[in-house]
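Protein modeling request. Please complete all fields; requests missing the sequence field cannot be processed.
Requester role: graduate student
Desired output: 3D structure, token encoding
Chains: 1
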Amino acid sequence: MKVVLCCIVIIFLAGCEVFEHPRGKSETIEAIKPSTDLCESEPAREQFYEFCKLGTWTAFLIEAEKTPWQTRMESIKLLGDEPYDKLQKILLSQAVDTPYTNRLRAQNWFDELKERMEAPMYELARVIVEIPSQQMLELESAITILSRVNARQERTINELQRTLEARQAEMKKQQEQVEQLLKIEASMSDDKRSN
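Delivered output (195 residues):
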């Protein structure tokens, strides 16, 4: 009976082409063609200038990573709101030591700027800026939340510890009072027996 049932299921599945496996066809990930020119049009070149070249991005990011946050922050303050300046602000905010609020601000600048980027530049910016920055923001948010939870739990533990210590002190005091009453009762009983 089980064999017949298995045969029926196999025939049914074969009819649904579940077992069909494309032979010779392999799925490949389409690689991005290496290009040093990230701007495809003249208007884009006029907006981003030397940032149309991949080498500029790498050199700028490496230099930004070496520069302390305070120095980078001063540079950011001096830059304007043009696409070229905004891109520099974003890249200056990508180093690991960038504070959460400034990284979040850079993410907002990127959201404003990405519509002006052409496909090659956007793909690069997405991989270098958007995805890592979003992950860092999520991790920092999680750490902040966990820190708050830990602080709240620590306060609760401290309060419970103080309550426990107070109750233990109260119990000790009551035990001493009971012992004193027992001593008084014992001495009164001894006095009655003596009389």
